[in-house]
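Internal ticket #5521
Category: modeling
Description: The requester needs a full-assembly model to guide mutagenesis choices. All entity lines are attached below as received. Residue total reported by intake: 964.
Assigned to: D.W.
Attached entities:
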Amino acid sequence: MALKMLLPASPASCLLLLVALAGAEAASDSNESANSTAQDAVSARFAASSREPAERISVFELDYDYVQVPYEVTLWILLASLAKIGFHLYRRLPRLMPESCLLILVGALVGSVIFGTDHKSPPVMDSSIYFLYLLPPIVLESGYFMPTRPFFENLGSILWWAGLGALINAFGIGLSLYLVCQVQAFGLGDLHLLQNLLFGSLISAVDPVAVLAVFEEARVNEQLYMMIFGEALLNDGISVVLYNILIAFTKMHKFEDIEPVDILAGCARFIVVGCGGVFFGIIFGFISAFITRFTQNISAIEPLIVFMFSYLSYLAAETLYLSGILAITACAVTMKKYVEENVSQTSYTTIKYFMKMLSSVSETLIFIFMGVSTIGKNHEWNWAFICFTLVFCQIWRAISVFALFYVSNQFRTFPFSLKDQCIIFYSGVRGAGSFSLAFLLPLSLFPRKKLFVTATLVVIYFTVFIQGITIGPLVRYLDVRKTNKKESINEELHIRLMDHLKAGMEDVCGQWSHYQVRDKFKKFDHKYLRKILIRKNLPKSSIVSLYKKLEMKQAIEMAETGILSSTAFSVLQQAQRTQATKRLSPEDVESMRDILTQNLYQVRQRTLSYNKYNLKPQSSEKQAKEILIRRQNTLRESLRKGRSLPWGTQVGAKNIRYLSFPYSKPQSGRRNAGAAEASDDDSSGLGLPFITFSARPQLGSLRESRLAQEVIPMKSLPQATMTVPFRDGRDPGPGRRTVARPRPLFFTLEEEFESRAESDEEASALRVRWTAERGHSREHGQSHSPLLRRK
Amino acid sequence: SQACLLRLHHRFQALDRNNKGYLSRVDLQQIGALAVNPLGDRIIDSFFPDGNHQLDFPGFVRVLAHFRPVDEEDPGVRDPKQPEPLNSRMNKLRFAFQLYDLDRDGKISRNEMLQVLRLMVGVQVTEEQLESIADRTVQEADEDGDGAVSFLEFTKSLEKMNIEQKMSIRILK
């Protein structure tokens, strides 16, 4: 008896281990197949064994059916995530192919496993599940991350292109396929017009955003970006609307009964559905923005509000048979501007990341399911239909692109070049949307559904793999062909300077568009909407908070570090002595060019780079930090000039609004006054601190050492020298000079805070810190010479 | 154009925080995006020629006029006796030259080049590399061997570049 119990127990324990492994770590194929095949064996065995000792309580139990669906879904998602990690580890790969390729491959892999083990896949893809749960996150994410200003500037072109383009594509493909079907030789005679139209509408749903990452390198211009974005955004909505209308047609009448009235009603319905959805979305957006105004104290529910309201807008629109997709898009766009200002920083980050996560999950599931159904028995292959589908897709897309843009170019101020149009044409990559729509075709109305599914799959595979992989080189080829290859270093530097200059000038000009409507909207927005929808306290820009963080870090580090090696001084002197110009070999020039290209600061981009699959940490943040630190140092340098000036009155005159900016702003007020004198001092003033910190890099962590560099001067000065103006002795030796400079600055800052009447909490905090500074430094006042002697 | 001037005036007024009627440096520094522009300070300084601290509207427009897109008209048609319009290529180049040449001596010395380089390059580049790059830059452009780049040499080194497009802001048309 006991032996019999042991026998099932030991394989059960091995299997339990396997189960645990599979659940915890990477699900390799062998595991999964072993799992699935073993489960059946085990359950059979347990069924058998449980019949014998009816009263025993089994020590190990296994109930796979209970967890099957969520278990496998989780495994799929994990597998896809691991694949993505691998994909991004090999850095060249994301530039070669879009991430959709990867997801499809993973899906195909899972599909082959499931097929191989004859396992029944969980019913992930069901019409209601798709439309209710899988689709909204994807659309929400694309609506939320869309840059709104360029979108609205190009709204006319986008609507024209996306709307009409989708319609042209759908009807064009449908009609041409119908004509092909009429040819008896292909055996497609039973596909009537409506079915073809429906197929046309679902296959015209493109997903071009997936390829954006691939040709991002080529720095396509903003207009092109927006076109592709706008198309992706509106395209899904329009396809689904068309799809639903055509399905309604198919259900309602037989083909012969359709009258012109119905067609007109269909068109009217199209418009009503579209606009109604948008209207709903906007209303919900405003409501949620209004609510977030009051959530200061419970910031944990802010993401919840955002998501729930968007979802609610989707559902509400769907209830009335309006376009939920357009509703949720409009809601996201409306909500974003106001919610961003209202919610706390952490909520904002949470919302972003959570949105990305949800949409990734949805898309992964859809793609995996696509892979699963690729390798299966439900296919019908018909050479003619499939090939013609492919051909017509490309042809009609080309027609719609070139025709529509030819027309819209007449009205645009910045016309699209032929090159841009080629890129748009070639980026017509299909994605998960068309597959889902194809899969959800009701079998009753479409006896040849399998044919459609197969054709859709072929089109998707073709476009994603072949077009996706070749679009990168194509775009680069189109771009590179125009520019000359080798520029001298001179040119590169000057070009970059001019780009920065232009960006700066554009910022000075501010942003305005060609459209009066937008200006009026902005005014309306400022006067009414913002008052209602945004909280009372001042919004803090990210630059401001970044600056404050930097200041605090700097102060803390200065308080902490007292020691540093003074090798910097000697390097500094050496660096200044290498004045002789050398003849440089070409390799040196090459290396210089490489250094420049890698290290020159990027010009501020208007449109932030968008990646559908992850949130890229902004490299511009790091750059902004460095620039801000430098500016701060220069401001400190110039402070000494303005030290004796009556900045006190200046500061007092400024209102409290300045405090929301970093406190260097009042400094700049002083700098303003101080710059009047000794402007020739500027160049040499700028020179040294840069030498001091740029000589530092070889010593490891930059900022700490840079700050520590300033520490020595500050602490090594005896107090008496504080009041002496340092304008005498232009060059009393580099080391001495750096030593001399920054100490009084901290005094001026200190006094400057005291003169300010407002008790901003930041000011008081900084005051506390700076007094701590001073106290600390006073102790080290006597160690002036030992520190310098450490050279 | 008229509409453009109107918009610029609106912008001028929007930038002018205390309605003083002129802009000071502080007002321009309030523009957040300029703070993270590596050349931000220099750009602001270029608005205030000759050490003024107040910028009135004509001055504002004058500087921005450098960035107007160049008209595609036939240059021969223009009256040669009139001064060149501010957005001609030469004037655009002169404006850019001023960004380098802080001491206004008409030449970009090696030090000035080095400073600009420092502003524009990240912190990973060492000082020696920067110096050699600055040397090389001056070397390439310098023809009369005086170790500095005069305005003519500057112009010559950029003769292949499409300055008119690089330094034009479309909305200022």
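Resolution: model delivered.
Comment from assignee: The longest helix of chain A spans residues 260-292.
Ticket closed.
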